[in-house]
Design a protein that fits this description.
flat
Length: 150
């Protein structure tokens, strides 16, 4: 190879390597950014209330209790309408599949499976956080009872 060809080859290789590295970095950042949106909202909300209202630690605990109770009430309402929502979802899936050719339908099924798996992971995270909050609440109430009995 002549010198200009070698230089062009090296620059091409360098550009390819940089593109590959930026792809890996972007993918890693995207996966790291996948957070529980509800908990992100909750953290920002509690922090803002604490800052703007100058809440005491006890008030922050009570605010978290209110948010936990509200979440439970909202979940109860959602559970009540869940069968109807699932019917609508299944109708949508059937209508979508009617539009697709067999190859597209296979990819759509794969897409639905990925979406379902992500939803399950999200539900598991929410359930775990809810369990942790309940345990913290019980410990706090127990501590309050013990300090009140003294």
């Amino acid at each position: 190879m002549k010198r200009p060809q070698q230089l062009a080859f090296l620059f091409g290789l360098l550009i390819f390597a940089l593109g590959f590295a930026s792809g890996i970095l972007g993918h890693r950042l995207y996966q790291t950014a996948e957070v529980n949106a509800a908990d992100d909202w909750r953290t920002r909300y509690v922090n803002e209330m604490q800052r703007r209202l100058d809440l005491t630690p006890l008030q922050v605990d009570k605010l978290n209790d209110v948010l936990d109770d509200t979440r439970a009430k909202v979940r109860a309402v959602k559970d009540k309408y869940r069968p109807q929502m699932l019917d609508i979802k299944h109708q949508q899936i059937a209508e979508m599949k009617a539009l697709l050719n067999p190859k597209q339908e296979a990819e759509y099924d794969k897409f639905l499976d990925e979406k379902e798996e992500k939803a399950k992971r999200q539900d598991a995270r929410e359930h775990q956080l809810e369990q942790e909050r309940v345990a913290e609440r019980h410990l706090r109430e127990k501590h309050e009872q013990e300090s009140g009995a003294k």
